[in-house]
Amino acid sequence: MTLSDMNLPNIITLARILLIPVFVIFYLVPGDWTYASSAIFFGLAAFTDWLDGYLARKLDQTTPFGAFLDPVADKLIVVSALVLLVAHHSNVWLTLPSLVIIGREIVISALREWMAEMNRSGFIAVTLLGKIKTTVQMIAIFMLLAHAPDLEAWWVIGAYVLLYVAAFMTLWSMSVYLTAAWPTLKLGLQNRKG
């Protein structure tokens, strides 16, 4: 597959992945513009998450490749940003919600793969709760990237609070997915015993 074979939503999704090293480099390079520049590129990447989905539906250009690539791009952006922030903030208060969010991404990815193997991939669809969680998470990360790690700054404290809200919603949405998938998981356990 070449770039000319891909539709506009898929090209936008690829561009989102290419923005990851850009916001990481801007965050790590010292200077007065470091935090703001990194946050702007992260915000652009987060906006393209909405844009590619909107265009795919509007232009009727949904594809299996896009369905695969879009969640991969989302996870890469979030995990890259959280790892960057945990390393830079270097405290337990940011590490804990980040571990919850990253851990959930791993569990849900594995669950989706399992459900696909069991021919039940439609059971793990994105919910409204998942969309709200993603929005809160992206806002929190944007705010954290935009400011130096200073626990006395209201901007940083507000971002921490939002990240904890996102972590709580992450656990909640994970429990919804696991509950929906439980009959299939139980069937898989029973087949192993037999």
Explain what you see.
The chain is mainly alpha-helical. It has a single domain, classed as CDP-alcohol phosphotransferase transmembrane (TM) domain (Four Helix Bundle (Hemerythrin (Met), subunit A)), CATH 1.20.120. The mean pLDDT is 86. Helix 1 packs antiparallel against helix 2, helix 1 packs parallel to helix 3 and helix 5 crosses helix 6. It is globular, with a radius of gyration of 18 Å. 28% of the residues are buried.
- Uncertain parts: none
Mean pLDDT metric: 86
Percent helix: over 70%
Shape descriptor: globular
Q: Approximately how much beta-strand content do the residues carry?
A: under 5%
Can you tell me the CATH class?
A: Mainly Alpha
Please tally the helical runs, counting DSSP H or I stretches of 4 or more residues: 6
Question: What is the CA–CA distance across the termini?
Answer: 42 Å
User: Order of SSEs, N→C?
Assistant: HHHHHH
Oligomer: single chain
CATH topology: Four Helix Bundle (Hemerythrin (Met), subunit A)
The whole-angstrom Rg is: 18 Å
What's the topology here?
Layout (H helix, E strand, L loop, with lengths): L7 H21 L5 H25 L5 H26 L2 H26 L10 H18 L8 H40 L1
Describe what is shown at a glance.
The chain is mainly α. It contains six helices and no strands.
Question: What labels would you give this structure?
Answer:
single chain; 194 residues; mainly alpha; Four Helix Bundle (Hemerythrin (Met), subunit A); 80% helix; globular
